[in-house]
């Protein structure tokens, strides 16, 4: 591994990104691998991002100022965080599950005349 670079999550992908640009991240998903993800995972990512914007917008409204400290708001935040964790785990499993051939391996074998 080159210093200052973090790898793509897909073990069969050799792309890296500047660690400086993604502080605190252990890996990235490059655009090529992102497009290989099933549509439902990308749709879920989009949905959660949209919810993030909604929650942020609500949190800035004065009338929700006190609501931010309610247990209801905390529950929503926790559920939201859990939803992200689940999606991240799903994506990580998709690329690293051992029972399936790793994503991209078939193409690699074909390209090199092995498969
Ligand atoms: Zn990649």
Q: What would you say this structure looks like, in words?
A:
The protein has 115 residues and is mostly helical. It has 2 domains: 1-36, no CATH class; 43-96. It contains 4 helices and 2 strands, in the order ββαααα. The protein has a two-stranded antiparallel sheet with strand order 1-2. Helix 2 (39-59) runs antiparallel to helix 3 (71-96). It is elongated and about 65 Å long. Zinc ion binds at residues 8, 10, 13, 15, 30, 32-33.
Label this structure with key terms.
115 residues; mainly alpha; 2 domains; two-stranded antiparallel sheet; binds zinc ion
Structural class computed from helices and strand pairing: mainly alpha
What is the terminal separation in angstroms? 28 Å
Tell me the helix content.
40-55%
The hetero molecules present are: zinc ion
Low-confidence stretches: none
Q: In total, how many domains does the architecture comprise?
A: 2
Main sheet? 2 strands, antiparallel
Overall strand count: 2
The arrangement of helices and strands along the chain is: EEHHHH
Radius of gyration: 19 Å
Mean pLDDT rating: 86
Figure out the total of helices.
4
């Amino acid at each position: 591994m080159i210093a200052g670079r973090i790898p793509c999550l897909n073990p069969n992908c050799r792309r890296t990104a500047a660690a400086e640009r993604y502080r605190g991240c252990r890996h990235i998903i490059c655009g090529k691998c992102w497009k290989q993800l099933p549509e439902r995972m990308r749709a879920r990512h989009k949905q959660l991002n949209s919810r993030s914007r909604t929650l942020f917008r609500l949190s800035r409204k004065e009338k929700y100022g006190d609501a931010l400290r309610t247990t209801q708001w905390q529950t929503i935040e926790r559920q939201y965080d859990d939803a992200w964790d689940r999606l991240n785990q799903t994506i990580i499993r998709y690329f690293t599950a051992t029972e399936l051939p790793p994503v991209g391996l078939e193409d690699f074998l074909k390209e090199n005349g092995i498969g």
